[in-house]
Design a protein that fits this description.
By secondary structure, this protein is mostly helical. It has five helices and two strands, in the order H-E-H-E-H-H-H. Strand 1, helix 2 and strand 2 form a beta-alpha-beta unit.
Length: 130
């Protein structure tokens, strides 16, 4: 891959997305011409969820291989709910002094301890909200 294609990307997150999107045609070709027969599903890493677009093109189910612990998965589901059902801008939580009440967490969570990828609007919306 020509690294000049991603020089315009302002952050590492955008560069990762650009590299993943650059590989979509390759994955599309592999699925279309699988040497072992028809593909039954597409399994993607949690950072490659945009590859689910390829699965949709072939009317295949797509599964996310989630390598983090259940607590991180739960906070991601909680943030998705805040975004989808309550219309909350997740990036605003980074400036909040109020501790977050996350379902299934025993204690409130101060926003200051959350990973930046969860609170950065561009990284969150492009990588995790699908």
């Amino acid at each position: 891959m020509d690294l000049h294609l991603v020089q315009h990307c302002p952050t590492l997150g955008f560069r990762v997305d650009a590299v993943i999107n650059h590989h979509k045609p390759i994955i599309r070709d592999l699925v279309a011409s699988a040497p072992t027969g028809p593909v039954g599903a597409l399994i993607v890493d949690m950072f490659c969820t945009t590859m689910t677009d390829v699965a949709k093109e072939f009317n295949l189910p797509a599964y996310v291989f989630f390598t983090s612990n259940a607590a991180f998965l739960r906070i991601m589901f909680h943030f998705q709910t805040l975004h989808d059902e309550l219309g909350q801008d997740i990036s605003e939580l980074s400036h909040s002094l109020t501790e977050l009440q996350v379902p299934s967490y025993a204690n409130p969570v101060p926003p200051s301890v959350l990973p930046n990828v969860l609170l950065d609007r561009d990284q969150w919306s492009k990588r995790f909200l699908r």
